[in-house]
Write a structure and sequence with these properties.
Largest sheet: 5 strands, parallel
Structural class: alpha/beta
Strand order of the largest sheet: 2-1-3-4-5
Helix content: 25-40%
Oligomer: single chain
Number of helices: 5
Order of helices and strands: HEHEHEHEEH
Radius of gyration: 14 Å
Length: 138
């Protein structure tokens, strides 16, 4: 039984208001063996986390920065109130946005994030269950 549990794929919550980018990342991550829940609305995803509505414990949250209604930083601040330890990967096209995540214990990556870099970052965060060192694969 214990071996079966350890082989279960990590559940990832992917939040991006751009349906095409969300679907692309979801496909990449699913092909790598992860169970991926995609959400286009950060406010709704936050409600679902707080109410325990997801079918499995979230092992990693991947979020965009700029989204209507709630930025990624706003989402992470609210998330940290109830889930201080869940790893979070923020992907943004705005370098200056990284400053908004100081003290929020996230890993920040710039767009475009190539599939190999996405997977290397996700693997490390899921494996370690925490923020990474920021080192990108060559």
């Amino acid at each position: 039984m214990e071996q079966t549990i350890s082989r279960m794929p990590a559940t990832l919550l992917l939040i991006d208001d751009n349906a095409v980018q969300a679907a692309t990342r979801q496909t990449i991550l699913k092909r790598a063996g992860y169970f991926v829940i995609a959400a286009l609305n950060p406010s709704r995803a936050l409600e679902q986390i707080q109410r325990g509505e997801f079918p499995a414990e979230i092992g990693l949250v991947i979020t965009d920065h700029l989204m209507p209604g709630m930025t990624g930083a706003d989402f992470v601040r609210a998330l940290r109130k109830t889930n201080p330890a869940v790893p979070v990967l923020v992907i943004s096209g705005l370098q200056e946005a990284e400053e908004e995540y100081e003290e929020l214990n996230v890993t920040f990556r710039m767009k475009p994030l190539l599939p190999d870099h996405l997977l290397a970052t996700v693997h490390g965060l899921v494996r370690d269950g925490r923020r990474d060192s920021g080192v990108m694969p060559q």
